[in-house]
Structure formats: structure tokens, C-alpha cells
Amino acid sequence: MDLVIPTSLQREHEALHEELRRATQADGEVGEAASALARLMHPHFVKEDQIALPPLGLLAALARGEVSTAMAEVLTLTDRLEAELPAMLQEHQAIIGALQRLHEAATRAGRADIVDFGRRLMDHARTEEEVMYPAAVLVGRYVRLRLGPTPQQ
Ligand SMILES: [Fe+2]
Ligand SMILES: [Fe+2]
After folding, report:
1. What is the pLDDT of residues 73-128, one digit of tens each?
2. How close is the Cα of 128 to the center of ligand 2, in Å?
3. Neighbours of 57 (CB within 10 A)
4. 122-137: string of b/e by CB count within 10 Å (b at 16+)?
């Protein structure tokens, strides 16, 4: 079964990535702070696109009451997500630290656009912690409950 990241979230990630890429091209300390942030963000984004966001593609079907054995595939992702969640939250802390440095540099340089980008990225991380990650974990737990014990292989 295709576990597809909801388009809205996919677009948001792509847009943030693109804005970050543009910020890395800024002159001087703004570009340096953005590059430091990008080095932290890239592996984090990749992990999110692999394990944290695809389970959310099942939300709408599950909320309609649709459950199928093919959905068991999501458990590989959500088990990994549960195991890696503490590390991912730590990554957010590091990202927020780098974001603060970018915020200060962009403020000094009068780059209101990058200050605004930083604010949106901060909100993004908060939404993930408060809504997206817990929702993805719940998708896994709910699918496991509904499908019952998995047969021994
Ligand atoms: Fe993200
Ligand atoms: Fe994140």
C-alpha cells in the first residue's frame, strides 16, 4: 500500500526547504547562520519524510472507518518513529538554537523576510511536536489495535 505524505504537509516542507536554501545564499553572518541551520535540518527533514509524515496519509481513511490489512505496513514506520522520537525532539532543540542565531543575525542585517521565515519554521516545529508526531504515533497504535496481533512470520 502506498503511504503517501498528505499533500498539504509535503508542500509545507518543500516551501520551508526552499526558503532555507535561499537564506543560505544571503551575505555574511546571515548566510552562515542559515547554512548551519540547513546542516541540522537536512537529515531531520529526510527522517520526517521517511517515518513521521507518511503515516499521516492514513488519517483520513481511518477517520472514515476504513481499515485494511495492507495498513499493517505503516507499523514499520510508526515503530521506528516511536523509537526515534526522543532523538527527533532533541534535534528540534538543536534546530531551535540554530534558528535563534539566524534570527539574531537576520535582525541585525534588517532581513525581515528571513526573520519571518524563522518564525514560521519555529511554528512548524511546534506543530510537529504538538500534533503531527503524536498523530503519527496514534495511527500506528490504532492500526495495531484494529488489526489485532500480527501473525508470526
Ligand atoms: Fe518538519
Ligand atoms: Fe521537525
Report:
1. 999 999 999 999 999 999 999 999 999 999 999 999 999 999 999 999 999 999 99
2. 6
3. 20
4. bebbeebeeebbeebb
Amino acid identity, position 122: M
Cα 139 to ligand 1 centroid, rounded to whole Å: 18
Angle ∠(11,14,17) on CA atoms, nearest 5: 150
Q: Which residue has the cell 502506498?
A: 2
In the chain, count H helices and then E strands. 6, 0
The CA 70 to ligand 1 mean position distance, Å, reads 26
DSSP character string of 68-92: -GGGGGHHHHHHHHHHHHHHHHHHH
* CA–CA dist 148, 144 (Å, integer): 6
pTM over 0.70: yes
Say if CB 38 and CB 21 are below 8 A apart: yes
The contacts of residue 88 (CB under 8 Å, 6+ apart) are 44, 47, 48, 52, 81, 133
**Residue 149 Cα to ligand 2 middle (Å):** 31
Q: How far is the CA of 75 from the centre of ligand 2 (A)?
A: 20
